[in-house]
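Hello support,

Our group uses your service weekly, and this is the first time we've seen a run hang past the timeout. The protein is Co-chaperonin GroES. I'm not sure whether the cause is the sequence or the server load. Input pasted verbatim:
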Amino acid sequence: MKLRPLGDKLVVKVKEEEAKTSSGIVLPDSAQEKPQQGEVIAVGSGEVIDGKKVPLDVRVGDQVIYSKYSGNEVKVEGEQFLIIKQSDVLAIVE
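Update from on-call engineer: The timeout came from a worker crash unrelated to the input. Re-ran successfully.
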């Protein structure tokens, strides 16, 4: 199955966070901070501004940092993804 986002949406594969502290203590899921970085795996066709379609600045393969509580989580074939708007992207990691 393949996800194809619409408009100004992006599909991001969330970067896995370390489940242990530096001292070796294993953290339960409820104690872990929500990750804010991931890899863009699909982009929509663009945003409509003043009746014209404007292409997105973010490309497939970009590593991005996004707003902490943005988007919708989806699970496809056992993998976790996040669908967010381009406006939720704070930066592209280069």
